Amino acid sequence: MTETLPRDSLHPAKTAFFFDCDGTLAAIVDQPDAARVETEIVEFVRILHEATDGALAVVSGRSIAQLDVMLAPLVLPAAGVHGVERRDGAGTIYRPEFDAAAVLQIAARLDEFATQHEGLVSEVKSASVAIHYRMCPELEGEALSLMTDIASQYPEFRLLRGKMVAELSASHRNKGDALEDFMREAPFAGRLPIFVGDDVTDEDGFVAVRKLNGIGIKIGAGTTSATHRVGTLHDFHDWLRQLSQTWTAAAPAL
Ligand SMILES: [Mg+2]
């Protein structure tokens, strides 16, 4: 585990970036709807996306539609819903078929549970349904037992846990699968992949970059397969700032 992030050794033509969104580009807030990526960070991302000829993707638990809103005006390669849906470097969207009726049935159960408890937020993201308990952490046990119960009734769904959120996904694809898909295609193929994330579901991405001899950067504490670690999201943002300044300065004048 290394605590100093590489910078001078990186080259824009040889690097591919994969960034998680919440807890990585955006600070985590109580209401998932209220999370935003600061304008300055959007600008750093834009610079790196341009400097790498488009080899920068956002890999998040959010849907691609939500990511587009948070990163506007950028429309980036993206993997949404933990790798279930994906938009490649050419803008083509891949979304597997899933049991939409089952998603709605599960959503109805979570809505019912959420309305009984102040502070719980349920959320449908195409192929997955989440329950957020950040505003009422004392309900974690109850929320998880409900999710486990539902998971046993819908064996084709997979239970995912994150920071103050539990999710049932209709797909078994993960962030690592999405990252590997990107790395097989232009403009990502042949580059050094760098994946940055902060949560349990990012571990699949860290394992995938390790297999590709790339760099995984874990933000914050916790067991991880990442090769590097930084203490906070601000440390990562400082690195983004430095890298985007260096690569802007290095760009040839037109
Ligand atoms: Mg995150």
TrEMBL record:
Its EC number is 3.1.3.12. It catalyses: alpha,alpha-trehalose 6-phosphate + H2O = alpha,alpha-trehalose + phosphate. It holds the Pfam family Trehalose_PPase. SUPFAM superfamilies: HAD-like (SSF56784). One of its GO terms (molecular function) is metal ion binding. Pathway: Glycan biosynthesis; trehalose biosynthesis. Coiled coil: none annotated. The keyword Ion transport does not apply. GO terms for biological process: trehalose biosynthetic process. InterPro entries: HAD-like_sf, HAD-SF_hydro_IIB, HAD_sf, OTSB-like, Trehalose_PPase. Removes the phosphate from trehalose 6-phosphate to produce free trehalose. Belongs to the trehalose phosphatase family. This is Trehalose 6-phosphate phosphatase.
